[in-house]
Specification:
Length: about 200
């Protein structure tokens, strides 16, 4: 009981702070990289990538000067189905052996309304690079009970997998495809200020 009380007091003392300019690293234990795609038109399959890393240069008083880089390990794909994951890693889709990573490097940041903003940059999948725009939200910056400065964000983009050479699918007799072309990618990210 005493231990819980101490923890509660510590959590209640976490205060919002202004994001300090500097180098930040993603905290993978408090972040996620998710995606979903249409399956046979009637439903959606969801998955995650379990291994990733990212960094940013960020100051909330100068959003437009921020820069972000992010890398995902393709072999860490997980759709809660081993056979499907094996297929996704095969040459039919990601061809993880030849193209082991998916990466993003920002080129510009545009302020939106409130804490929303757009992050434009180069997304590379299957060794094909295209310019995309993530719709992002900044959740704020706090000091945790252990003295670490953390910032939270979400970022969402919809891409056409055909643009990146991920072209495998089968046609349905009723029309449509077994695997849809549009894929939604969503990142929920917690960054820690490097000490």
């Amino acid at each position: 009981m005493i231990r819980k009380a101490i923890l509660l007091v510590a959590l209640l003392t976490v205060a919002a702070v202004s994001a300090q300019a500097g180098d930040w690293k993603v905290d993978p234990s408090h972040s996620s990289v998710k995606f979903d795609v249409s399956h046979m038109v009637i439903s959606r399959v969801h998955g995650i990538f379990g291994q990733f890393e990212g960094s940013m240069s960020f100051d909330d008083s100068m959003f437009n000067a921020s820069k972000v880089e992010f890398t995902v390990q393709i072999a860490s794909v997980d759709t809660d189905n081993a056979d499907r994951d094996k297929h996704l890693k095969s040459a039919d889709f990601f061809d993880a052996e030849k193209h082991p990573t998916m990466s993003f490097k920002s080129t510009s940041v545009r302020n939106g309304k409130g804490d929303s903003f757009e992050l434009e940059g180069d997304l590379t999948i299957h060794s094909v690079t295209k310019t995309v725009i993530f719709n992002c939200e900044y959740y704020g910056t706090v000091k945790d009970p252990w003295g670490n400065t953390k910032s939270g964000f979400s970022a969402t983009v919809k891409i056409n997998r055909q643009d990146f050479g991920l072209s495998w699918s089968k046609s349905l007799d009723s029309g449509g495809l077994v695997v849809g072309d549009d894929v939604t990618i969503k990142l929920d990210l917690e960054f820690a200020l490097a000490k």
